[in-house]
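Tyrosine-type recombinase/integrase
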Amino acid sequence: MSELLFPPATKLATRRFPRRDLYPLIKDDRVVWDQTLPGFGLRFHASGRRTWIVFTRIRGVVSKIHLGNAAVVTEAEARGKAQLLILEAKVRRDPLARRKQARATPQFHEFCATYWRRWAVKWKPRTIKANDVYRDTQLLPTFGKLFLDQIDEEVVLAWFVKYTETSPGGANRALGMLSHMFRKAEDWGVLPPHSNPCPAIKHNPRRKFERYLSEAELKRVGATLDKLEKTKPLHVGAIRMFLYTGCRRNEILSLRWEDVVGRYMHLYDSKTGPRQIDLADAAQETLRRIPRLRGNPWVFPARCRKDGHTKSVINFWRKEVLAPNGIPPLRLHDIRHTFASHAALESENTPTIARLLGHSRVRNSERYMHLGDKPAIEAAEVVSGFLAAALAGKPIPFANEGRPFTR
């Protein structure tokens, strides 16, 4: 941009557009006006961004029209657009109305509200809470004012790279949500097919948690659980059920007595939808030893707030089971890995492991893949039996190898 072409604000500009009309439109930003084309200027934002603008009177009202980012649109292009818009206003055409009519797609924040209204009803409360955070802290601040067809791969990639610097996992989840929003925009006819800018962007590598309890650690854990069973039967029972079923944390801690029928456990609100758990003898015996509270439907009831039992069991696992035995930190979710790893070492096939763990996609269980093919109920019995033996300090004989498990 030529410094001679754009000196500080001139009398010509301020005379044509009084300061009282301009100030609400530019506020604290600085604008450098063109001497030869009144109303045409370059706006310097506080953030450092520069945009071409033009002011013109439309039906007697001073209106500001953005002509583009100065880093993308050249001075000559912006000047040509400004001249055309000023000419349209002089012949009593409304260039803003024409622009709005030409823009058929909604802004992101408008579509986001529609998407939430139509799709959030399918989510669980915890999912809604998490997705609300991604929407309010990432998606709306970044894309809210853009029209859907303005959000291309370059724009999304710039945001994804910046977000990855602070939270790689969060960036992956937010990108997945954004991609789904674009897929629904295509399905609902808001955008044409193949408008999704997200598939070409590669997700950040996921951290793989391969930690699980060894035979020696299981023996120490079992001895500790035996000692604490009289004083904390609910906590001990919850840990044993994690080990014997491979269920997720909330699937066990939100279990009701009415969900247990015979040797089956029915989960109606599982992460992957309703499913049935095959209870091995060890799991059934654990449930029989758990005291029932009269009038309370929960197998593991909370004594305080709604999630009290969850935090209580987590603290019990960390401070009273792992720490005294010198076992490195291990999440409750890693107990699922212990169950799955023993299933794999016993040569259960991937579909069987997927069913035992409640994976909706078989590929989620592929890291435990070995050969073999047993019905799920038999597999649950075998794996739970081995884990029960390990907790009791007995050797674990693997049927397919005839040797105890060592790490």
